[in-house]
TrEMBL record:
Organism: Neolewinella lacunae
The keyword Membrane is annotated on this UniProt entry: yes
Residues passing through the membrane, by range: 12-33, 39-56, 68-89, 95-115, 122-139, 145-167, 179-198, 210-228, 235-257, 269-286
Keywords linked to the UniProt accession: Membrane, Transmembrane, Transmembrane helix
Protein name: EamA family transporter
Length: 299
């Protein structure tokens, strides 16, 4: 008999996903392409990697027009998120882009109840607001020339909260493999016209870029998206987003040693990072306390 997919297994797979996502900013910094072609190659390679596992004709018939349009729309949001995320890396650095993503919980605390149609939790909003001083310190702790990267990074975090909540709402409509394929294929199609406007200049990856792109597409995208969507069938989008906020921990740690990002950041940046991460771990503690009292529903 096949074992049930439990909450504990969902959390394990979610944390494995976050560890792998911690490498994406490093790879994005190492790849010489600008943000738009980088993301286009990423979604194209990921989509191609899934073709062998998805029977496209049967999938289209079973999903129907409405669900295809829903997942296509979410795929466009994913594309916009990745372009802004890698844009933040190019405009600032990997550490700044990663810590901006940790503000996702602030946006999620306000947007998920509206999108998923569940009641607001006051402690989620409170912990989300606790992140605001951290954001201010992060902005104050970077060079003035990086401020544009911070703003783009915050936009990227907003987009994450929206498409994660939408995925949470519709994830039970089909299996994660199909969702990933439709969303990233839609992202590829959506980005192609913008890519054509850039021409061939800066379009082709270098030989080393190809290696990084393949790792980014297969390991850090195909595998992680499937695991993440499967975890969402058991966990709330807010809980998932807060776990995803651990991505900066892994990413900044790697960037510190591999990319020399520390030379561009001040102690205020790391103090802001600390406040944001306190909110991340505080959520788990607060939710556990309420659950033990029997006052918080599972999820």
């Amino acid at each position: 008999m096949k074992p049930a997919y439990s909450d504990s297994r969902a959390y394990v797979e979610l944390h494995l996903t976050v560890v792998l996502w911690g490498f994406t900013a490093i790879l994005g910094d190492l790849i010489q392409l600008s943000a738009l072609p980088l993301v286009w190659w990423r979604v194209l390679l990921t989509s191609l990697s899934l073709v062998a596992f998805v029977r496209v004709g049967k999938m289209v018939r079973e999903l129907g027009r409405r669900q295809l349009l829903v997942f296509t729309g979410i795929g466009i949001l994913v594309a916009a998120h990745w372009v802004t995320f890698y844009g933040a890396i190019k405009l600032a650095n990997a550490s700044v882009a990663l810590i901006c993503l940790a503000t996702t919980s602030l946006f999620s605390s306000m947007l998920e109840p509206l999108i998923v149609r569940r009641p607001f939790n006051w402690y989620e909003l409170l912990l989300g607001l606790f992140i605001l001083p951290g954001i201010w310190l992060v902005i104050d702790g970077v060079e003035a020339g990086m401020n544009q990267g911070v703003i783009i990074g915050l936009v990227s975090a907003l987009l994450v909260s929206v498409f994660t909540s939408l995925n949470k709402r519709y994830v039970d409509k089909t299996d994660p493999l199909r969702i990933t394929f439709v969303e990233l294929a839609a992202a590829t199609v959506f980005l192609t016209p913008f890519l054509l406007l850039l021409g061939s200049n800066g379009f082709w990856p270098t030989p080393l870029d190809w290696v990084y792109l393949i790792v980014l597409a297969l390991l850090c995208t195909t595998l992680t998206n499937i695991l993440f969507l499967r975890a969402l069938t058991r966990l709330s989008a807010f809980a998932a987003n807060l776990t995803v906020n651990l991505e900066p921990v892994y990413g900044i740690f790697l960037a510190y040693f591999l990319l020399d990002d520390a030379q561009e950041l001040t102690p205020r940046f790391y103090l802001g990072t600390l406040l944001i991460l306190i909110a991340v771990f505080g959520y788990a503690a607060v939710k556990r306390w309420f659950r033990l009292r029997g006052t918080v529903p599972r999820g």
